[in-house]
């Protein structure tokens, strides 16, 4: 089964996880800690076989490339990484926002407002997300154990 492309917000969530130091890559496998620190996701990516897996809900239950996989692919240099944008997303309480507003579109608006206050324009962010999403489409990752 091929993994679907994720909701666009997951690209930003991956950048935030990297900035927060919540992504640890060890010998092809990785551990990613949730934004609240109460969950830890196991991640594996085998690019030769085009297989990826993560224990996060998006990957495990909804069959899309979850933010832990995106973060690992960014750190491995497979997906584009924007250090400035990543640092601007440091400390965002993703889970709290997602649970409070219940719609990714609303959370995205809050994030865009926050980034705008930090001098990062929405158009710049949208272009970056487009680039990452296109690379994910080209990867055609399948869900499976590594």
In short:
It is built from seven helices and five strands, in the order H-E-E-E-E-H-H-H-H-H-H-E. The chain is an alpha+beta fold and 146 residues long.
Descriptive report:
- With 146 residues, this protein is of the alpha+beta class.
- It has one domain (9-142).
- The chain contains 7 helices and 5 strands; from the N terminus they run αββββααααααβ.
- It has a 5-stranded mixed sheet with strand order 1-2-3-4-5.
- β3 (40-46) and β4 (51-54) form a beta hairpin.
- InterPro entries: UCP014422.
Number of domains: 1
Strand composition percent:
15-25%
Walk across the major sheet and give the strand order.
Answer: 1-2-3-4-5
The assigned structural class equals alpha+beta
Low-confidence stretches: none
SS field, number of helical segments: 7
Number of strand elements: 5
**What integer is the average pLDDT?**
96
- Overall spatial form: globular
Give the terminus-to-terminus CA distance.
14 Å
- SSE string, helices as H and strands as E: HEEEEHHHHHHE
Helix content: 40-55%
Rg (C-alpha, Å):
14 Å
Characterize the largest beta sheet: strand count, sense, and whether it forms a barrel. 5 strands, mixed
SSE inventory with pairings:
Layout (H helix, E strand, L loop, with lengths): L8 H11 L3 E4 L2 E5 L6 E7 L4 E4 L2 H4 L6 H9 L7 H6 L5 H8 L2 H14 L4 H18 L2 E2 L3
Parallel strand pairs: 4-5
Antiparallel strand pairs: 1-2, 2-3, 3-4
InterPro entries: UCP014422
């Amino acid at each position: 089964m091929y993994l679907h492309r994720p909701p666009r917000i997951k690209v930003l969530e991956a950048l935030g996880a990297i900035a927060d130091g919540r992504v640890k890559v060890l010998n092809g496998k990785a551990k990613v800690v949730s934004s609240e620190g109460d969950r830890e996701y196991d991640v594996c990516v085998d690019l030769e076989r085009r297989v990826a897996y993560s224990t996060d809900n998006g990957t495990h239950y909804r069959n899309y490339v979850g933010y832990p996989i995106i973060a690992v692919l960014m750190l491995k240099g497979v997906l584009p990484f924007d250090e400035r944008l990543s640092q601007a997303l440091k400390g965002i309480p993703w889970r709290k926002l997602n649970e409070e507003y219940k719609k990714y579109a609303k959370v995205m608006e809050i994030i865009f407002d926050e980034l705008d206050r930090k001098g990062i324009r929405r158009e710049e962010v949208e272009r970056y997300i487009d680039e990452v999403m296109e690379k994910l489409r080209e990867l055609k990752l399948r869900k499976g154990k590594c």
